[in-house]
Amino acid sequence: MKTPKKSIGNWEWMILGVVLLILSIIGVVVVAKSKEYYCSPVEFEIVFDAGSSHTSMAVYQWLADTTKGTGVVGQLAFARECGDAGLSSYANDPEGVVPGLQDCLDLAELVLPEYTRKDVPLFLAATAGMRLLNATDPGKSDAVFEVVRRTFADTPFYFENEKSQVRILSGNKEGTSSWISANYLGENLGVEPVTGGIVDVLTPREPIPTRPTLGALDLGGASTQITFIPEDPSQIPAEYRSKLRLYGTDYELYTHSFLCYGADEGTRRLEANLVKESGFAEVTLNPCSPVGYSYVVTGEYLWKAPCSKGPKAMEGWGSEVTPAPGVTEDVMASIEYRLNGTGNPDECYRVTKSLFDFNATCAVAPCSFNGVYTPLPRGSFKGISNYAYTTAGIGLTTTPTIDEFISAADDYCRKTYEELKVLPEKMKYKILYCFRSMFIRALLFDAYKFDEKTWDIEFTSEVNGIDFGWALGFAINATGWIPEEPACVGLAPATFIGFVVIFTIVMMIGFALFAHGVRRGIFGKRSPRCSVDKSYHPQPQSA
């Protein structure tokens, strides 16, 4: 005997209908709240400048509708210090980079709208400090980068190409990026730069006349760069040439980065030379330090640095400075040398000039120093980073004459330690400005051959609060290849209509099921119009 199939009862039809009705109503309400579809007209980018002495971060913004393929970029936020030192300083403690990076990442998260974050690319480009570490100990360099990449991966930002988004920036790319920054902010690229907030970003811009471009002079901690368009760009050897396309215009630049010729490495090399020339005496005189100032350096600091000894020292300086005979690496840290300042500008300039080899063989003329091809300067220049910090530190305006620069440098070097104490700024910087001003003097006049006819340099570190470093130029150049996919919130019109149709159909089905259950219940309770007594069986009658 077959078991009869159990049919769906009236209440079950009604409950199913009610459930579908409720779900469809909730769906319609949710979709209605998402009706406001909005795509940001602005794109964003985060760039970390990992220099040899410190790491900074900038958040940039630009109108998604680029100008002939290049974004007109503005600075949304800037943090000058993301940690206490440069990345290379954490070679023996890679995890030490995390707190400083995280502080700056938190700032970026704070200033960026939540719905945009997943589309905001995150970059870190490391310069000379990490170039040197990677060349001398790639294992330690990789370990530092691995921690950086892990930290970046744990953020809400776009970070899918970890090898290209965290990497070492070549010296020539650094110089080129500084050149872009200088010319963009100087209004030399045919566009009006963004120097304000979001209103300025969204303000329509008319093209402005292009003007002769500026050269860029950048002095970092472990390298220095010079980039400009010489009189005849076709004569630039391939290894010194950089080509760019910005805002629809092509540019051909001369650029070169002198590794180890940064302000910090120059100081170290000078001190190593002074100690060696003194016969490794316990007390050495330093003409570039003020009278009354005495300090101690270790043998490890002087001799173990990549720019002091090894292949990078040979590549950068053309020579090594070696420790005293018999001094091995395991005892360098315990050896100390005291340097006493004498505040002698003429002697300081002499020993500083000795850091440059002006007599090296010049394969392709003209050469600046160490046999490096460098065309004669042409046009106006911007001096950024330590060029700007030093000229301001010795009391100059942003546009001094040659005589004013030389006079100010000499006067500053004559100041005693007691006289420096009353000047503003931190002492750790004030005691360095004498050497750095002489280093700049040797670079500009003796190496690059600026003279009264070609001297047209403005020393500046920012414009309207925007940092004048290479990171801005890096960001501008990147807008040409970052996909133009604006971040959106809400539902696109087609998606919105689709969901409305689906939930409307579900609502209609729910209503139909509920009505079906109600009808079955009503008709199931009605009495039949006639009934048959199945127990009555009429008998046939006999004839």
Number of helices: 19
Report on the biggest sheet.
6 strands, mixed
What is the CATH superfamily of the domain at 39-215 and 464-489? ATPase, nucleotide binding domain
CATH class of the domain at 39-215 and 464-489 equals Alpha Beta
Using the 3D structure, state the CATH architecture of the domain at 39-215 and 464-489.
2-Layer Sandwich
Main attributes?
543 residues; alpha/beta; Nucleotidyltransferase, domain 5; six-stranded mixed beta sheet; ATP binding; UDP phosphatase activity; Ectonucleoside triphosphate diphosphohydrolase 8-like; ATP-binding; hydrolase
TL;DR of this structure?
The protein is an alpha/beta fold.
Model description:
- GO terms for molecular function: ATP binding; GDP phosphatase activity; ribonucleoside triphosphate phosphatase activity; UDP phosphatase activity.
- The chain has helices at 10-33, 98-111, 128-136, 138-153, 162-165, 171-185, 198-202, 263-277, 299-303, 311-316, 329-332, 345-353, 386-393, 402-414, 417-421, 427-430, 433-447, 470-478, 493-524; strands at residues 38-39, 42-50, 55-63, 73-79, 122-126, 166-168, 215-219, 223-228, 241-246, 249-259, 283-286, 294-298, 336-341, 381-385, 457-459, 462-463, 466-467, 488-489.
- The chain has 543 residues and is an alpha/beta fold.
- Among the domains are: 39-215 and 464-489, ATPase, nucleotide binding domain (Nucleotidyltransferase, domain 5); 263-354 and 402-454, 2-Layer Sandwich (Nucleotidyltransferase, domain 5).
- It has a six-stranded mixed beta sheet with strand order 9-10-8-7-14-15. It has a five-stranded mixed beta sheet with strand order 4-3-2-5-6, with helices on both faces.
- Helix 1 runs antiparallel to helix 19 (493-524), helix 2 runs parallel beside helix 4 (138-153) and helix 6 crosses helix 18 (470-478).
